[in-house]
Amino acid sequence: MASSGRGPFSIHVVVVVLVLLQLLAAGAPVVSASAANNTLRPGEELPKYRRIRAHLKRLNRPSLKTIQSPDGDLIDCVPSHLQPAFDHPMLKGSKPLDPPERPKGHKAGVPTDDNIQLWRTSGETCPEGTVPIRRTKEEDILRASPARRFGRKPVSRTRRDSEGSGHEHAVGYVAGDQYYGAKASLNVWAPRVASSSEFSLSQIWVISGSFGSDLNTIEAGWQVSPQLYGDSSPRFFTYWTTDAYQATGCYNLLCSGFVQTSNRIAVGAAISPTSRYNGVQFDISLLIWKDPKHGNWWLEFGSGVLVGYWPSSLFSHLAGQATMVQFGGEIFNTHASGFHSSTQMGSGHYAQEGFGRAAYFRNLQVVDWDNSLIPAANLKVLADHPNCYDVQARLNTAWGNYFYFGGPGRSIRCP
């Protein structure tokens, strides 16, 4: 920012005014003054603005229809062949594939998605042949730190070697075999996130490679991330990487890669309703599996709704199979106050509180070499900061392998 003294400050004001006049003359929308003051330095205003506008143009595609969500989101109905996925060099000229067969043992119900996401509450949906994409706004990119990593997770976030990275987990996992997918049901909460640069999530990880620079992951679940979305609502999300979150992959459709096929689910849109403490529990089912015919990894959300797929050509290790499947919660702790974060995981309550009070994953299954869903045997659990967030595994006939997890973050137990 400007140094003390009237000269530099006056020059900075002149620069900002000239830039704003140029933008207004061009008929372009202007970034708010508060956002500019917090983000841009003298001499950087116009170049950074141009980079942001170019990025928005890449992300926001021509649409046939736009739906206004009650939470302020704009959902654009984009022709399927124009979605960001097909900008990827390996996917150029492609079209979305037809759905594959579900794994054996999958009990597919009638696809229902009504009242799962806020944007659908009006009854509107996108036309056939289009996909609903949450529109990215200037302020979304300006919140990212740094802006060039917009849409990506902070690096060094693997479960192993997570000590000191800021990423904290309470998870159940299976390893030591070959896995071709995973399925589970998880309840949805709206945990409190203490800082805009922190997040809290609940998800499935499908993992291959070492926990180094060649890590491949496919991820899906719900998350609260004020920095990414600008609010505190739990949102359905996807993620992928082929290099341990360094330069490849992204959330949702914020880069080329994931191919969406559904016109009824918007990746990145808010989930509604959510679970209530000592009240009604609302959970969602997620299924990720590898199509034996073409090798792509497909995603099903809710009761039978196919969202889309990650092409196998995106990956190195996951072009074959996974070597680990992980279920559970994660938070990002910035230690902003010098203490542990008070960001909640799950419901914000510890695992021992059980049903109606703690977050859970139930009916944990994996997909084997024969494209069959089987129970997730030899499930192990791990909480890397158990005084802050813990996990307890259980087993019964109705829920199969399941576990409770979560916690409040900073507390008497977690100073």
Automatic annotation (TrEMBL):
Gene3D superfamilies: Outer-capsid protein sigma 3, large lobe. PROSITE patterns: NEPROSIN_PEP_CD (PS52045). Residues 1-27 form the signal peptide. Residues 161-415 form the Neprosin PEP catalytic domain. This is Neprosin PEP catalytic domain-containing protein. Keywords: Signal. PANTHER family: OS01G0547133 PROTEIN, PROTEIN, PUTATIVE (DUF239)-RELATED-RELATED. It comes from the Eukaryota. Residues 85-114 are annotated as: Disordered. The keyword Signal applies. It comes from Musa acuminata subsp. malaccensis. InterPro entries: Glutamic_endopeptidase (IPR053168), Neprosin (IPR004314), Neprosin_propep (IPR025521).
